[in-house]
Amino acid sequence: MTKRKIVYYKVTPEDVITKGYPACVFPINHPSDYVSNTKFVITSKVQTIWPNGEFETENTHYIPLRTKNVYPSSSSNIDYNTTIS
């Protein structure tokens, strides 16, 4: 198991997280100099998604930082089932 860096992301209705594709999220504490943490980013391909909104890419474990009344739900843009052949 590779130790991945932990990055929190702000949960918004605009989040798009689909297994096998890059995610689009708003990171809070990404350590890269190439990430400003002030706007949405495109991640590398999502490898695993959990029902609580956490997901992993090749190098990073993303954890949702929930704010007032914003939670992943059945109407959110999270697709747990898509896989790429």
Task: Describe the model.
The chain is an all-beta fold and 85 residues long. The protein contains no helices and eight strands.
Summary?
The protein has 85 residues and is mainly β. The protein contains no helices and eight strands. Strands 4-3-1-7-6-5 form a six-stranded mixed sheet, with no helix packed on it. Strands 2-8 form a two-stranded parallel sheet.
Distance between the termini: 23 Å
The portion of residues forming beta strands comes to: 35-45%
Radius of gyration: 12 Å
**Number of helical elements:** 0
Could you say how many structural domains there are in total? 1
Provide the fold topology.
Elements: E1 5-10, E2 17-18, E3 22-27, E4 41-45, E5 48-49, E6 55-56, E7 60-65, E8 78-79
